[in-house]
Automatic annotation (TrEMBL):
Residues 9-94 form the DUF3817 domain. It is a multi-pass membrane protein. It is found in: Cell membrane. It comes from the Bacteria. This is Integral membrane protein. Its main location: membrane. The chain crosses the membrane at residues 12-32, 44-63, 75-92. The lineage of its organism: Bacteria, Pseudomonadati, Bacteroidota, Cytophagia, Cytophagales.
Length: 98
């Protein structure tokens, strides 16, 4: 896959997966945890999401270094990881401009 050959491509893939895991937590596992008293899925997806979040932050830092991103772009990319649908916005507005 050509997307994984560049640092920005890897960031885009990690960002997509991290964004999906965040939405799974918000809209599926959290309601299961609090309304159906099923904490198991939240623990599993939560741990996976935590790992993906760390990978996303590292990938953003690597892109900042490799592509000499300004502080504003780097900050927006990092902020996108804590806002629902944020990584999808970052992919469309920030990462495709490289």
């Amino acid at each position: 896959m050509d997307l994984l050959k560049t640092q920005i491509g890897r960031l885009r893939v990690i960002g997509f997966i991290e964004g999906v895991s965040f939405l799974l937590i918000l809209f599926i596992t959290m309601p299961l945890k609090y309304y159906a008293e099923m904490p198991g899925p939240n623990k599993v997806i939560g741990m996976v999401h935590g790992l993906l979040f760390v990978l996303y932050v590292l990938a953003v830092v690597q892109c900042k270094i490799e592509y000499n991103w300004p502080l504003k772009k780097t900050a927006l990319a990092l902020l996108a990881s804590i806002v629902p649908f944020g990584t999808f916005w970052a992919d469309a507005k920030l990462f495709r401009q490289v």
